[in-house]
Amino acid sequence: MKRVFTLNEKTHGPGGIFYQWQRSLGNYLATTGFDHNVRIFDRHGELREEINLPGLCTGFGWDVDGDVLAIINDKTGVVFLWNANSARLSQLDSGLRDSLTFLLWSKTGQQLSIGTAKGNLMIYNHQTSRKIPILGKHTKKITCGAWSSQNLLALGSQDNTLTISNAEGDTIRQTNLRAEPSDIQFSEMKGDERSQMGDNTVSIVIGRKTLYLYNINDPENPIELAFQQRYGSIVAYKWYGDGYIMIGFSQGFFVVISTHMKEIGQELFQARNHKDNLTSIAITLSLNKAASCGDNIVKIHELSDLKETYAILNLDDERQLGQINWTDDGQLLAVSTKAGSLHVYLTKLPMVFDTYNTRLAYLTSLLEVTVQDNVSGDAPIVLAADVEPAFIGLGPYHLAVGMNNRAWFYALDCEVGAPPEKLKDREYLGTVQSLKMNADYAAVRFEGKVQLHMIEGDQGASDDRETRLFPDKDQADTKITCHCLTPEFLIFGTDSGGLHYFFIEDWQYVNEYRHMVGIRKIFVDPTGTRIIFIDDKSDGFVYNPVNDQVVEIPDFSPTTKGILWENWLSDKGIFVAFDEEKLYTNVYCRETVNESVCELVGVTKLPYGQVPMLLYNGEVTLQTQSGKTSNLVLDTHSFDGRNLQEMPPADVKTALDQCIKLRRYKDAWALSAHLDSRESWLDLGRAALYNLEIDFAMRVYRQIGDVGMVMSLQAIKDSEDRNLLAGYIAMFTEDFNRAQDLFLASSNPQAALEMRRDLLHWDSALQLAKALAPDQIPFISKEYAQQLEFTGDYTNSLMHYEKGITKEEAYREHDENCAAGVARMSIRLGDIRRGVGMAVQMPGRALKKDCAQILENMKQWSEAAMLYEKGGYYDKAAAVYIRSKNWAKVGELLPQVTSPKIHAQYAKAKEADGRYKEAAQAYENAKDWDSVIRINLDHLQNPEDAVRIVRETQSVEGAKMVAKFFLKLNDYASAIQFLVMSKCNDEAFQLAQQHDQMEVYAEIIGSDATAEDYQSIALYFENEKNHFLAGKFFFLCAQYGRALKHFLRCSNSDDSKAIGMAIETVGQANDDALTHQLFDYLLGETDGVPKASKYLFRLYMALKQFREAARTAIIIAREEQNAGNYRDAHDVLFSMYQELKQQKIKIPSEMAHNLMILHSYILAKVHVKRGDHLKGARMLIRVANNISKFPSHIVQILTSTVIECHKAGLKNSCFSYAAMLMRPEYRNQIDVKYKKKIEQIVRKPDKTEEDEPTTPCPQCGYAQAETELVCPNCKNNIPYCIITGRHMTKDNVTACPRCDFPALKDEFLSVLETEENCPMCSEMVKSEELKDVMDLNKYMNPDEGED
């Protein structure tokens, strides 16, 4: 805090100093000491008056308005009165003869109370000059007193009494006190309810130790509060707030108590503010602060939080302080010392300032004005003013300060550090309330008028443009309440609601707006194109002078003190309204879908006691009470674009909402990209659309992939009609009513009609069509009628369908649709004849169906059926005819009917009429086979058809009926068959048992039965000693032990089948005991008769003992060969070969070799049959070389070999085998017809024979004979071709698709031309099934294996 001035102890001589600030205004300070003088200083420390008294001053005080200072002394009864306005001194004779000791002005009136040393009192009314003497009010010296707000006077005296009197001096209350009173004050005790009386309590310090509370309404129950002894004596106390008392104690303690009865006696706050002593306390409610002084320190606290120390003043050059007092407005704080000096500090500067763009001019001291620009960073300019400014005006080149009716003008184009140059001073016709300047002119408002004059012009010039007074003479009754000045205009508002624009260049009015009530304040934006005004109702509005548009500011605080427009050009349209506590950020948008709007963005708390002066880029510059500035960032502008990655998502979302509201789209884009949520992008896109930022909105919707919206915006963005553009945007954002209003105000009002049609808002569309496009009414009526029909409003639907008919050939299809609607609605509304007639006449099938359905729902069967029939819906027509029992029509339609349900209904009707043949046919058409079977059995006596149908359809119910039919005829076998077919196995079993038909039942039941069914059959056959069937059914029900027992007891006639079943049983059982039992039986150990080897082979196969089965197969094949059954031997070996290959078991070489020899024999027969003698001869040579394996046909095979070799030209081979035949053991067995020929070959040998052709080995490529199966080079076995018997080559490879044996593809295809089956597996093969085999390795070494 700045020290304004100091009065040293020499001012009043030795001793203490006493002082009082002027009430209300605080412009004067009255002081006195022990030198018989009262001095009056102004607030800057200048001596204004010195009053010499005849004696020592015993009291002085200012009246309630601060106009008169009253002074008394101890020598005379005269009261000196000094008038602050006129600076004149007058005297008043009190008429009291004893020494005057006490003086006090009333709080509310002009009464002055004066007390004497003997207890007498006089009350003087300064307004009426009436004096009321009251003698003997007290018996001793009156020392203290107080006036209440109800003009009651409380007095304390050395006689230890308290009196309370009215303004006439009449005593109302009187009470005795136990010690001398001091420091009397009036206030209101804190209670549950407010006192109607107001100041109801007198507080008094008793003996400087206790605080006495005397309630005027309850005088019998006073309260006396004592405090801790360590606090010392009571120095001073102050009431504040809602019944709180702050008390200062001599030992430096600072205590707050409450006077509420529930809290009385409790200390709410206590602190030791001063180390040694405390001498005074003071409170200023205007600053909401409290101060205490003691030692050489003054401490200032916030009343709202006493723990917070606002400031500390150290008076290092003083030893002991005296009293401390604030002016009423809290601007100045005076501190006296015991030595007689006085220090005055500035605690609150007057909030006087002005701005121009980003420039500020404000008080930094009572006589100092600072001009600075925080944005541009220019050096501040400091002006030392001659007077304390009451107002400041700032222009681009000038500064004005002034008070009352005078202003001083200064030029700001001074050098850095130099004070501004004073240009002139000027007086006005009244007290100046505000002053505004531009580059050339100043506009000064005083007493309801505004004077516009040039700043540097010559006052004596006759130029009319030099000065002008507003309002004009013809508006003498109008009072100007506010004004502002832009580079081009003087703008002022009046108490009658007028807002006037005066164009300075043309020196005339150019615009006037008339508001409904008076205008109190106006605030112009930096460009001068928008004005905010506050009217007498405390409502705020934004005014656009271009089109006289006024937009009310929402949620406008009624206590708003001022408006700040944003000076940052990028945030055009943002402004802040502020009251005592908050800053309200608003944004004004001229161009939106809803035309111009004003929106509240957010609220920021305003620091206490600070006044906003300037807004730039969301930062408010505030003037503080100490004459400094501070900066406050608005809560709505808290996002600065930095540290985005560190912000939590909730804060990012809040920042995004703020940026959207502030129209800061660049920042909003960055925030949306950071959030990267569809919701955030949509919020941004909708906001851009609302503000008609089409290009930016397209960018947003393109970002989220909304192709439809981007294309829609692309189509409208070049629209020059603002209403049309806004209408489309409103439509896109689903504000359809607003869109319609905008479309109608645009150059294309039909867009409103198109929108309503697209939205199916037909009532609105019809109303618009009447005015905009009457030719569209029929088409809209039709669409409306369709919707009404759908919702069930048939009456209105019929009306609109009828309105929709145009009777124009060009719209024939449209008219037909309307006519169809008329037909439907007529039927629904009961006009059936009209509707049916229209439906029949119109060509479409769909209409007939629709009308028929409506009629059917209305139970109008005949008309419905007729329309179905006309439309070709025969199934529906027949169904409706059935409902109306019109069987004749049903019969006519039956050939066209496809619905089984219709046929079934017709069949039932015919059956009821006894026409069974027709009924059966209808049931058959309906696929109701059970009914067909029933009719054939019960009525037509036609069991053959019934049986046929049951067999074809497998009908369970039908089978039951047929079974019952055959049962009646005693045809038990057939009955059993159909009972089984109908799943009635128990009934079939009982029937078979009763009539000895169990074998039939067993045959029929097959594999489709349960284990219980099989067991029942098995037990039956067991009782009948039919071992084979008993064993078979025990096997089926998995009782393998019993099954094997029966199979082994079968008679010789069933031996082969029984052994086969026994082998299958053992294979399924997987039981070693049963296996050994069967082995013993097959080997003859049971009955001494060994069984054939083939059974042993089958047993091994069933047990999956494939190696044993292979050995057995070789034995069986050898037996078959010995018996001459070569094909059987081949098949046994082939099947065993395949089984071993499937089980991935190595194939024994003997088996592979034997299979190859047998297969060569079969191939020889094939080739001889086909006439290919060379291939046949080669295969027979291979067989003849192994002739010992064919003992039954040695001679026949050798004979065939000789003949085929002869035919093939293999002369040497022919001779070799002919010579073999001539051996004695074979010679007599040669067939007679070949014997001579063979003998001739032997007698006349021809040993010429070409070498056998060679082909390469598929493994090593060595060329070897075609029929050689072992490569002499690589010693590998080579697979043989199953067609030719030759060895395979790498190329031309295929395989049988059935047995997977390799073959030469060309040879296989050649054989398939005459043969159908594979010579190896005897399965049918088609030529197209043969596929090329690329890898022969899987067929190599097929004969390797374990013996």
TrEMBL record:
<keyword id="KW-0282">Flagellum</keyword>
<dbReference type="InterPro" id="IPR056157">
    <property type="entry name" value="TPR_IFT80_172_dom"/>
</dbReference>
<dbReference type="InterPro" id="IPR001680">
    <property type="entry name" value="WD40_rpt"/>
</dbReference>
<feature type="domain" description="WDR19 WD40 repeat">
    <location>
        <begin position="360"/>
        <end position="637"/>
    </location>
</feature>
<dbReference type="GO" id="GO:0001750">
    <property type="term" value="C:photoreceptor outer segment"/>
</dbReference>
<feature type="domain" description="IF140/IFT172/WDR19 TPR">
    <location>
        <begin position="850"/>
        <end position="1184"/>
    </location>
</feature>
<dbReference type="InterPro" id="IPR057855">
    <property type="entry name" value="Beta-prop_WDR19_1st"/>
</dbReference>
<dbReference type="InterPro" id="IPR056170">
    <property type="entry name" value="Znf_IFT121-like"/>
</dbReference>
<feature type="domain" description="WDR19 first beta-propeller">
    <location>
        <begin position="18"/>
        <end position="340"/>
    </location>
</feature>
<feature type="domain" description="IFT121-like zinc finger">
    <location>
        <begin position="1279"/>
        <end position="1325"/>
    </location>
</feature>
<dbReference type="Pfam" id="PF23145">
    <property type="entry name" value="Zf_2nd_IFT121"/>
</dbReference>
<dbReference type="InterPro" id="IPR015943">
    <property type="entry name" value="WD40/YVTN_repeat-like_dom_sf"/>
</dbReference>
<dbReference type="GO" id="GO:0031514">
    <property type="term" value="C:motile cilium"/>
</dbReference>
<dbReference type="GO" id="GO:0035721">
    <property type="term" value="P:intraciliary retrograde transport"/>
</dbReference>
<keyword id="KW-0677">Repeat</keyword>
<keyword id="KW-0802">TPR repeat</keyword>
<comment type="function">
    <text>As component of the IFT complex A (IFT-A), a complex required for retrograde ciliary transport and entry into cilia of G protein-coupled receptors (GPCRs), it is involved in cilia function and/or assembly. Essential for functional IFT-A assembly and ciliary entry of GPCRs. Associates with the BBSome complex to mediate ciliary transport.</text>
</comment>
<dbReference type="Pfam" id="PF23146">
    <property type="entry name" value="Zf_IFT144_1st"/>
</dbReference>
<keyword id="KW-0969">Cilium</keyword>
<dbReference type="InterPro" id="IPR039468">
    <property type="entry name" value="WDR19_WD40_rpt"/>
</dbReference>
<dbReference type="GO" id="GO:0072657">
    <property type="term" value="P:protein localization to membrane"/>
</dbReference>
<dbReference type="Pfam" id="PF15911">
    <property type="entry name" value="Beta-prop_WDR19_2nd"/>
</dbReference>
<protein>
    <recommendedName>
        <fullName>WD repeat-containing protein 19</fullName>
    </recommendedName>
</protein>
<dbReference type="GO" id="GO:0030991">
    <property type="term" value="C:intraciliary transport particle A"/>
</dbReference>
<feature type="domain" description="IFT80/172/WDR35 TPR">
    <location>
        <begin position="681"/>
        <end position="770"/>
    </location>
</feature>
<dbReference type="InterPro" id="IPR040379">
    <property type="entry name" value="WDR19/dyf-2"/>
</dbReference>
<dbReference type="GO" id="GO:0060271">
    <property type="term" value="P:cilium assembly"/>
</dbReference>
<keyword id="KW-0966">Cell projection</keyword>
<dbReference type="Pfam" id="PF24762">
    <property type="entry name" value="TPR_IF140-IFT172"/>
</dbReference>
<keyword id="KW-0963">Cytoplasm</keyword>
<keyword id="KW-0970">Cilium biogenesis/degradation</keyword>
<keyword id="KW-0206">Cytoskeleton</keyword>
<dbReference type="Pfam" id="PF23389">
    <property type="entry name" value="Beta-prop_WDR19_1st"/>
</dbReference>
<dbReference type="InterPro" id="IPR056168">
    <property type="entry name" value="TPR_IF140/IFT172/WDR19"/>
</dbReference>
<dbReference type="Pfam" id="PF23387">
    <property type="entry name" value="TPR_IFT80_172"/>
</dbReference>
<keyword id="KW-0853">WD repeat</keyword>
<comment type="subunit">
    <text>Component of the IFT complex A (IFT-A) complex. IFT-A complex is divided into a core subcomplex composed of IFT122:IFT140:WDR19 which is associated with TULP3 and a peripheral subcomplex composed of IFT43:WDR35:TTC21B. Interacts (via C-terminal region) with IFT122 (via C-terminal region). Interacts with BBS1. Interacts with TTC25.</text>
</comment>
